[in-house]
From TrEMBL:
Pfam families: V-set. The gene is jg21679. Residues 28-126 form the Ig-like domain. One of its GO terms (biological process) is synapse organization. Keywords: Signal. GO terms for cellular component: neuron projection membrane. InterPro entries: Ig-like_dom (IPR007110), Ig-like_dom_sf (IPR036179), Ig-like_fold (IPR013783), Ig_sub (IPR003599), Ig_V-set (IPR013106), Zig-8 (IPR037448). This is Jg21679 protein. Residues 1-18 form the signal peptide. SMART domains: IG. PROSITE patterns: IG_LIKE. It comes from Pararge aegeria aegeria.
Length: 133
């Protein structure tokens, strides 16, 4: 009987309430309360905010931003992998927020972007940016 009670206690402490449901303890997950649509005026900065919970304990997992229309990798961690200097990843140490900044925003920047976490399996969340004139 004691083993059954121990298993039950282990299960209760083995999960945590996450973005929209129960998530395995230790696994990164997206905060589903994050706004996934943004609008910016032409010539002004545009910001897409991706919140990844429980990433701090996983040194091998990185957050990347991808432009979906051409699958271009824009950023990995805080490093920019685009020749277009308008794109940058903003992240404060210890924060769970990873922000893609496009400055200044242009109409051609409108579209879908993906925030990816390099877990196994990979997890991703789509964001829509609309740039208005």
């Amino acid at each position: 009987m004691w083993a059954a009670e121990f298993s039950c206690v282990f299960i209760l402490f083995g999960v945590t309430a996450g973005g929209g449901g129960w998530e395995p303890l230790g696994q990164p997950y997206f905060d589903n309360s994050t706004k996934r649509e943004a609008t910016a005026a032409v010539g002004q900065p545009a910001y897409l905010h991706c919140r990844v919970r429980n990433l701090a304990d996983r040194a091998v997992s990185t957050v990347s931003w991808i432009r979906k229309r051409d699958l271009h990798i824009l950023t990995v961690g805080v490093h920019t992998y685009s020749s277009d200097a308008r794109f940058a990843a903003l992240h404060a140490d210890g924060s769970d927020e990873w922000t893609l900044r496009v400055a200044p925003a242009q109409p051609r920047d409108s579209g879908v972007y993906e925030c990816q976490v390099s877990t196994e399996p990979k997890i991703s969340l789509s964001f829509r940016l609309t740039v208005v004139g």
